[in-house]
């Protein structure tokens, strides 16, 4: 899935432009990477669009920041952000909500849940970063005119996927939160690839003690193996369906899931 909307054909845009002249389009390019924003602004200007830019910084977005962006006079918003990074996603969502502009999000991630997050915040549509510059320009012009490029059922499906991802993340967080401090420490060491004997040596306790703690971890997390526990721990902060990274090596798990 490379584009989540129907990109209007050049002929369609040109014909409509003849019948009804387009107002001046000023694109506000927001990115967490200033050099990327500069390159995109330059590219858009080469296509005849007026483009200005600002940087998305992690953390809370003040009303003053949003007001200063609106003083630039944008008519459409183009967001380029690493949606897989929670602070960037949160900042992008806040700006989309506060600016109240027709918005196109250019996303490097293909995670449908993260696309649903920005759609819920009011983005008009989401494009994969693999689209061409010509396609981006056509979509920006169409969105600025108020065109609905994303089918309502497709939009709702992506937003529902985001809601489900948040529920899953919170449910996993609750299970991990039920662990005792020592059980959580054991789980973290398993995540780093340590074996039960290795954990016992690091913690200065008997191997049997660690095995008992691992069994308690599996029971509280509702999984049948150390591999399952590690996979669940890897998803603890994920809302995009990814595992959040490598498990870091062997987990010391036999096929029956008993601690080794």
From TrEMBL:
What SMART domains would the database entry show? HTH_LUXR
Provide a Gene Ontology MF annotation, just one.
DNA binding
For this UniProt record, the keywords arranged alphabetically read as follows: DNA-binding, Phosphoprotein, Transcription, Transcription regulation
The Response regulatory domain is annotated at 26-144
Q: Which residues form a coiled coil?
A: none
Q: InterPro entries of this UniProt entry?
A: CheY-like_superfamily, Sig_transdc_resp-reg_C-effctor, Sig_transdc_resp-reg_receiver, Tscrpt_reg_LuxR_C, WH-like_DNA-bd_sf
A GO BP entry is: phosphorelay signal transduction system
Task: Please report the stretch or stretches of sequence annotated as the HTH luxR-type domain.
Answer: 172-237
Q: Where is this region: Disordered?
A: 238-260
What residue intervals traverse the membrane?
none
**Compositionally biased residues, Gly residues:** 238-251
4-aspartylphosphate (modified residue): where? 82
Q: What is this protein called?
A: Two-component system, NarL family, nitrate/nitrite response regulator NarL
